């Protein structure tokens, strides 16, 4: 024993408590939207987006989904407009 005390980790807490994790993602997404609706400025938008990304990346890690896999899906969508893709599903 080296006598060190491990620091509490927000990430570990989120990974163990899926209800908390999902509620944080919803809360942070709502805060991000409010930066637009209330014109809170670029810095606030960037900060809230960082919160959304961080919490969403924890959700990916819980499910063993790599961010690279998400980026690959976005890359494949480059050649098709979102409206075309949506109508192709109907
Ligand atoms: N990027 C983050 C990160 N972004 C946000 N958070 C935490 O997410 C929590 C969000 O809670 P709240 O919504 O209550 O806080 P808030 O959003 O600041 O409050 P308001 O917007 O409501 O004013 C806060 O405790 C933030 O510190 C993060 N916690 C950790 N990380 C990264 O994860 C690493 C490991 O952190 P630990 O897991 O805590 O060791 C860190 O070094 C960082 O790199």
Automatic annotation (TrEMBL):
Any one biological process term the GO annotation gives: L-histidine biosynthetic process
Keyword match Glycoprotein: no
Superkingdom of source: Eukaryota
Annotated metabolic or biological route of this protein: Amino-acid biosynthesis; L-histidine biosynthesis; L-histidine from 5-phospho-alpha-D-ribose 1-diphosphate: step 2/9
Molecular function GO labels: ATP binding; phosphoribosyl-ATP diphosphatase activity
EC nos: 3.6.1.31
Catalysis performed (reactions): 1-(5-phospho-beta-D-ribosyl)-ATP + H2O = 1-(5-phospho-beta-D-ribosyl)-5'-AMP + diphosphate + H(+)
Keywords for this protein: Amino-acid biosynthesis, ATP-binding, Histidine biosynthesis, Hydrolase, Nucleotide-binding
InterPro entries xref list: HisE (IPR008179), PRib-ATP_PPHydrolase-like (IPR021130)
UniProt cross-references to NCBIfam families, sorted A to Z: histidine_hisI
Protein name as catalogued: phosphoribosyl-ATP diphosphatase
Classification lineage: Eukaryota, Viridiplantae, Streptophyta, Embryophyta, Tracheophyta
């Amino acid at each position: 024993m080296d006598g060190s005390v491990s620091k509490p980790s927000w990430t570990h807490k989120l990974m163990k408590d899926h209800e908390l994790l999902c509620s944080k993602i919803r809360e942070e997404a709502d805060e991000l939207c409010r930066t637009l609706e209330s014109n809170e400025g670029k810095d606030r938008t960037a900060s809230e987006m960082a919160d959304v990304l961080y919490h969403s990346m924890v959700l990916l890690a819980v499910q063993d989904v790599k961010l690279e896999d998400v980026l690959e899906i976005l890359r494949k969508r480059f050649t098709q407009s979102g409206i075309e893709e949506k109508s192709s599903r109907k």
